Amino acid sequence: MTEPHDGDPPAGLDLTTPEWGMWQAFRNGSTLDLRTPHPQRNDPAGPHAWGPERSVRARVVALLLLDGPPPQPGRVTALKLNGVHITGTLDLAGGTVEPYVEMRNCRFEQELLLPESRFTTLRLVGCAVPRIEAARLQTEGDLHLPRCVVEHGIRLTDAQIGTDLLLNQLVVRRDRRGRSITADGLTVGQDLQAEMIESYGELSLRAAKVGVSLSLRGSQLRNPYGRRALNAPQLTVERSLYLTSAGVSNSPFSSGATPPYGTTTPGRGTRIQRFECEGGVRLDDGRFGDAVDFDQARFVMENDQELSMRRVQTPELRFLGERPQRGRVILSGARVVNLVDKSVSWPGPGQLAMAGFFYEHLIPRGHFPLARRLEWVAAATPEYSPDPYEVLATALRTSGEDADAREVLLAKQRRRRETLPLAGKLWGYLQDWTVAYGYRPGRALVWMAVLWAVGTAYYLQRPPEELKDGESPHWNAYLYTLDLLLPLIELGQDAYWRPGGLSQWLAAALILLGWILATSVAAGASRLLRRQ
């Protein structure tokens, strides 16, 4: 092994010319660039063969990283490679790598083994790797894998990334278990950027924790082999989860992004690439500190697949994507402060479930009339449930839309009526017809005025006989009709007169209708008091 004072390779290692160049570049912290003048031959994932003049052995790379020579005076050791072919298996499992590592446009012959290893910062940019095995990897700084092509999956189970994990424009295909990226239990200190990636298989982030935001802007997740394309239950993101469109910039240093592989939030006139997901999505029990954003997202699912957000908690849910044609959207038990949505984003009947879904404020984008909002609730409740109506009414009332809130509660009673037996339905229709279940009390006054006018007109023409001669008060058809209509109120008229024939039937009808109106108003008032 190399002595601490000696910068030469150990005896018997027999370095090739590219390896000797890599050895010297490592000692002075410079870059070994073995690219050719022909750009088409520099694509690590391309068909062109890379000969010995561009190849270094993985064992030499491992030697440099785990027990390399000292730096040249006044320099810092670092492994920086560009356009290099690494032959054999680079196995750093369990090792501690202190030098800075950056490999660009490199081709790995076999898988990269990093389980249980420790790095300060590791950057692989635009590389082609058969597979990356990095369970329980730890970095003090960043882990960068942008623009890489990984044919047989990446494993980051229980990895701990000190600052940022950058996967932008990564192309990754499934492993033997059908997963493209397995990152269950992953911890990222700051941002996890996976923008404009292409994932073929299941992207698994179960119980992962992200210290700032998780961005999948413009990414294409496809899993025709299994049930889910994104499987992330119990995901915790301190700020926002973005499943939105990305602005595509020709500049490698896009504004607001980490160079040299960032994307931008789409601006006017910018070419955009939307987030698309072919397969189910599972975000159950997720916790998001700021928002979950689905702006312009497109979900392509089979009938048995779901966009599942059961028991998700977030201050804001922006459901602004394209309406799923198949599959189901599940929001059961989710709790949201602001629900930002569009009427054209929600699926139809049988494709939406919202049992126990609670939100405080509605912020519709575009035209979202109350009738469409009631259809939205009905689509989520194939069997009657009062909760979605109550939550919607509360949110409308909080926004000062009391009239709309009453319409929602009236729709709830009408929906409930469909579940009642015949007697209950008849009584319900009567309450609806007369006073709209108490939510339109003015209707009772109209009916009362109509009945009062009819009764008064009749009794002005056909006053009843006195019950006892000389004991009756002065006849007043107006007060007499009103006394019949108002139950429990005595105006001193109906007890002194004896109607007969048709007058008696009219008096009985007025008394009965008065009781019905009073009972309906009382029932509606009781509901209003309970709601308050």
TrEMBL record:
This is Oxidoreductase. The chain crosses the membrane at residues 505-529. Keywords: Membrane, Transmembrane, Transmembrane helix.
